[in-house]
Structures are given as C-alpha cells and as structure tokens.
Specification:
about 220 residues, Methyltransferase, Methionine Synthase (B12-binding Domains), Chain A, domain 1, Rossmann fold, 9 helices, alpha/beta, 5 strands, five-stranded parallel β-sheet, 2 domains
Length: about 220
C-alpha cells in the first residue's frame, strides 16, 4: 500500500494536481507511510520528471507551475511529520529573493521549489528586498548560495548593489551569487561579478549544483 501511495504522490505532481497531492500525503501519514520515503521516492522524482518534460518542450510554464504547486501542497503536510533526527539530505543552503523595487514572484518561487525538490534548504525572503535584507538572511541562515531575481531592466542594478553589499559586509567570499530574471543575461552576470546565471528554474538547479561542487 505504501508503494501505491508513493506512486500516487509522484503522479499527482506530474499531473499538476495540488488537491490530490495533499489528499495522498494525508493518507500516507494516516497509514504510517514514512514521510521521508514519500518525499524522496514520490515527490522528488515527480518534480524532476516535470522538469525534464519542461526542458524537452513537452511541458510549458503553466504545467511547471502547477506541478510545483502540487509538490508544495504535499510537502506542507509531510515535512512537519518528519521525526526528530530524520532529515532530508541537504546539498546546500540557499537564500532567494526578488530585489528592491521588483514585485515579480512566480519565477523566484519556482526556482525555490525546484531547488527544494533537489535537496537544497531554501529560505525565500520574498519580493522587493533590499541588499541589507539579503545580507541579514545570508548571515542568519549561513547560506552557501544567494539567488537574486530581477524581472525589470530598471531593477537589474540592484543585483550589482547586492554583490557590493556582500563585499562591504565581508561575506562575499563565503557565499555564491546566482542571478536571474527576464532581462538578465549571462554576460551581465559576468560583468557584475556574479557566480552564475540561471535562465529558468531548471537551469537554476544545475547552476546551484555546480556552485556547490555537488554531483548532478
């Protein structure tokens, strides 16, 4: 029965069914199925398949978003049920946010979900966040990577200001900087001294693994 429920969780993510994912997660806990198995054997392979379908062009942004929503719905049920000492393997700690003056959230949230699905511990500080907020969150969470999103050409400068703030705070050498957003390019990332540029949520996972020197 546990294998059947884990399979249903995986399929709910692939099909983009948040309500079903929540129901199956609750059923799994009711039947004493290991929540870690539900995450590692069900949700994670499910969202990874969604990512592969997106990369191949078989899925589009709406399918990616709703698949991520399904995974989050199940995670909200399962993660609190993890017993003391039972933790998901953490590849690295990431602080994510959209820079000051920018209220766009969908891309950042997707990146966070995909990173979480692939073993990263993600702290999302939200939208319209200034450099000071990023620096504080990095220090508080001992982040290995900071991801800064800018969806407007007028707010891209804030990504450069973030790197300058990290240098001023004396923590630039201890955290990798990953940037993204519609107007952002790999060339711009290089110009401002970022460590990586992610075009979308799928490539963000690959970049994050590379920045952590972790096997993909």
């Amino acid at each position: 029965m546990s294998e059947e429920l884990i399979g249903k969780l995986k399929q709910a993510v692939i099909d983009g069914e948040p309500e079903d994912a929540e129901i199956f997660a609750k059923q799994a806990l009711d039947q004493s199925v290991d929540p870690l198995d539900c995450i590692n054997l069900g949700l994670t392979p499910g969202i990874q398949e969604v990512g592969e379908l997106f990369s191949k062009g078989d899925y589009y942004l709406p399918e990616l978003i709703i698949g991520a929503d399904a995974m989050k719905a199940a995670l909200d049920i399962l993660e609190p049920a993890l017993v003391s000492g039972q933790e998901r393997e953490v590849v690295g700690r990431v602080v994510l946010g959209t820079v000051a003056g920018d209220l766009h959230e969908i891309g950042k949230t997707l990146v966070g979900t995909m990173l979480t699905a692939n073993g990263f511990l993600v702290t999302d500080i939200g939208v319209d966040q200034n450099s000071e907020a990023f620096v504080a969150a990095i220090k508080e969470n001992k982040a290995d990577i900071v991801g800064a999103s800018a969806l407007l050409t007028t707010t891209m400068l804030q990504q450069k200001k973030l790197i300058e703030a990290l240098e001023s705070a004396g923590i630039r050498d201890s955290v990798k900087v990953m940037i993204g957003g519609a107007p952002v390019t790999d060339l711009y990332a290089q110009e401002i001294g970022a460590d990586g540029y992610a075009e979308d949520a799928i490539s963000a996972v690959d970049i994050a693994y590379r920045l952590m020197d972790a096997p993909v």
